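Escalation from tier 1.

The customer reports that the assembly of two entities below gives different structure tokens on two consecutive runs. Tier 1 could not reproduce it. I'm attaching the input and our single run for tier 2 to review.
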Amino acid sequence: MTKTHQITIHDSTLRDGQHAVHHQLTLEQMRLYAEAANAAGVPVIEVGHGNGLGASSLQVGLAVSSDLDMMKTVRQALNQSRMAVFMLPGWGTTRDLDQAIAEGADVIRIGAHCTEYSVTERYLEHARKAGVEAQGILLMSHMASPKQLADACVNMQNYGAQAVGIFDSSGHYLPDDVTKRIAAIREAVDVSIIYHSHNNLCMAVANSIAASKAGANILDACARGFGAGAGNTQIEVLVPVLHRLGFETGIELYGLLDAADIAECELMPTPSTVTSTSIVSGLAGVFSGFKSKVTAVATEMGIDPRDIFFELGRLQVIAGQEDLIIDVALALSKRQKNADEQTCQN
Amino acid sequence: MTKTHQITIHDSTLRDGQHAVHHQLTLEQMRLYAEAANAAGVPVIEVGHGNGLGASSLQVGLAVSSDLDMMKTVRQALNQSRMAVFMLPGWGTTRDLDQAIAEGADVIRIGAHCTEYSVTERYLEHARKAGVEAQGILLMSHMASPKQLADACVNMQNYGAQAVGIFDSSGHYLPDDVTKRIAAIREAVDVSIIYHSHNNLCMAVANSIAASKAGANILDACARGFGAGAGNTQIEVLVPVLHRLGFETGIELYGLLDAADIAECELMPTPSTVTSTSIVSGLAGVFSGFKSKVTAVATEMGIDPRDIFFELGRLQVIAGQEDLIIDVALALSKRQKNADEQTCQN
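Tier 1 run:
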């Protein structure tokens, strides 16, 4: 177990940030940011398509560069930071893992929906055997209880994960929610614990601090919060706040601020902001990536997109179930029509 | 004393938001937003120049409209919300207060630097005698201890204030800092307690929640966080988060989200974001309004603006002492020059 006050910052700017630009970051943009983050002493830089290795596709978006080229570029830019990649089984395969390891990935993250963690087993074992750091991630973790998450993490630890943890994929948590879950996981496992926030309710930094106080020692963050939906935890805020609270990250502040300025000027067409849609998506506990489809369907059918989000949340819809957006919209439209007719008859 | 779980939301969009547009909100913009916030049931709408009554000037910026016209416009837009105005003694006088009361202001806020609260006495008394709600505010409150703030609040209560509280003018606080201060004030006074955040460290909503848990029952917030520097607490996030935690505000969510959308589209040329300068200003505990002058001086003299902010923080510089920015820059420049010469000689 690592020391309580040492936090490893895992920079997802070049992976989760891709969601904000439909996976169109160029190799030159990646190089610029990776060099700056490396110079600031950021310990881990993640790279790839927003949905991870092998995910570039018409379904979730074609990346402008191949996994191979992105990894080669970032690897070359780093002389002190470690390189990480992310993989969702189904999109990626062991072949993708082998390629990433050959290209110098030091950290391999395998993610799965929080209740479907058993799919991570063979990939965690594979990465572990290859001698890289294997990490197991539970997505949409607000849909499971602290005990369920702790049990899942124990299982991933048994599969060989050297770090396990949770993503707040829809930005639903408030700090006390995070404290309960991380404390339950801390109680159950011996390995490092990962926490990853989204900022839908303006809580990304506060939740990450709550996680670190409860025992998480790997925190994900992105420059200027660049990321899906309302964005992620803002790395250049998180780091000095951790320092102020007595945690150590080994990162140099001015260098990190410079890297964030580069991200703002060179990578981000618009800043990550908390819009009305982000807020409703966070309150409803719906995957942030649903935003564009919900908005399109709502406009086409003359329905309030907020009603769709709350209904999707009630139905506990998860990433991959995008088709349900239309079903929900149709049902809401029918209900609205019936209500209108009822009003006319009265 | 009000019920613990009832929070009065005080909407500063049309007053603190003015800082973000150099006090150039038009009467039509004010009418649009005030009508929407009123329709959503926001209980108090503040209006005026960013620095309050009587502050329109070359020194801090000329507002595009007069105090009188702004108050007339907003008053006419409200049929359920109360109207508030803000005044800093020195800028505003009892004549300004009388005009505001004649124009239908229901709430009069008198602000002062946290250690200079005695200047509020005659204005709080004046407002109280006129039969409006008198509120006393301590600015830059991180520069005083919890005990000093509590003592100041007791004094303002004795001057007649029916609500007293603190502004985190430089966005320096983390939640525990707020909890300690509000708890100390709660212990000392019987009247309502006000808390007002800035978002420099991404903590505006989290700090406001900490304040409400510690006993604050009037929380300031702005649509989309519109406000000085990194912006204020985002009202349309704060309200549903308070509801989720069991607090009541009487505000209707969809109406509030609509009002925030109007603010974003009609009032804000750019969104409030947390830039590197905002972060350094928050860490250093320097008034957010210093940003443009620090940046200009730094550029002219070839100095890192971050060094200026940290030095201003070390010197505990307060609003109104803008002239010190140049002194600090000159001293830093001299120090840098000496260091360079030293390097050349070696």
